[in-house]
Structure formats: C-alpha cells, structure tokens
Design brief:
It is a multi-pass membrane protein. The protein is an all-alpha fold. It contains four helices and no strands. It has helices at 30-46, 52-78, 85-115, 122-151. It is elongated, with a radius of gyration of 19 Å.
Length: 153
C-alpha cells in the first residue's frame, strides 16, 4: 500500500517574482496590457472625447485597468504574493472581469468610431478613433489571453 507523504507535494509552479515576471506566461502579458491600455486612453483623449457618453466609459475602463494592472505588476515584481495560491485566483478573477469590461469598452469605442465619420474634424478624429478601437480590441484580447492562461496553468 502506497502512502502519500510530503514528497508528493503540490506540483503547482511557483509564482514569479522580480524580473522573472517578464519571462513567464501569463504574467508577461501584464506589461503589454498596460502599454496598450495607455494607448487607448491617449488616443481617446486626443479626440477631445467628442462622444462623452461612449468614450467616457472607454476612458474609465482603460485608465482604471492600467492603474490596477500596474499595481499588480509592481506587487509581482516586489514579491508581495509570497507564492500564495490566492494570488492566482485574484489574478484570474481580475483579468477575467477586466477582459469583459474591456470588450464592452472596445465595442463602444468602435461605435464612437462609426459615429465620428460624419462629425466635425472628420479625418483627424476618425483616424484617432480607429487607432483607439484597434488598441481597445487588442488590449481586450491580451486580458482574455491572460485570464485563460492562468486558468489552464
């Protein structure tokens, strides 16, 4: 009869700390999420938020997610997680919820892009809105990848 002892401890990989965060999937997605989300905020702000009801939500989601993701990245870099499994759950829940919010923001930004075709400053605002839509969908995709990568890890 085989006994289960300390030698068959959990085979879960350790959470990365320090520079290893940038080399480990899914944690390597955090920096691109922050950068792409910052670009969303910059491009929407450059349009002077001509459609405040739509683009206000986009700016809120992008700015809030950037700040929370930055705090999460700093906590991984500084090793605040202490290799606790609860951090994986927190990270997965955060990135899953943010992926849904970012997808809604990306759809609203695409709608703002369509509406900006006929508005004032047509070429400039339309181009800025197009780029903001692209980065919003890219950022949503990065958050989705991060959430599913943690789930399947």
């Amino acid at each position: 009869m085989a006994t289960v002892g300390p030698s068959t401890a959990s085979t879960q990989p350790a959470l990365p700390s320090g520079p290893a965060v940038f080399k480990t999937i899914p944690y390597a997605f955090i920096l691109p999420e922050i950068i792409c989300g910052t670009w969303v905020w910059i491009f929407v702000a450059a349009t002077s938020v001509s459609l405040p009801l739509l683009q206000g939500w986009v700016m809120y989601v992008s700015l809030t997610s950037c700040l929370i993701s930055l705090l999460l990245l700093l906590s991984y870099l500084l090793g605040f997680h202490r290799n606790s499994e609860n951090w994986k759950v927190l990270d997965s829940l955060y990135h899953g919820a943010t992926a849904i919010l970012y997808l809604s923001a990306a759809v609203l930004q695409a709608n703002a892009t369509i509406q900006s075709e006929a508005g004032p400053n047509i070429p400039l605002y339309y181009q800025l809105n197009c780029v903001a839509s692209f980065f919003a969908f890219l950022t949503a995709f990065l958050y989705i990848l991060h959430a599913f990568s943690i789930y399947y890890q």
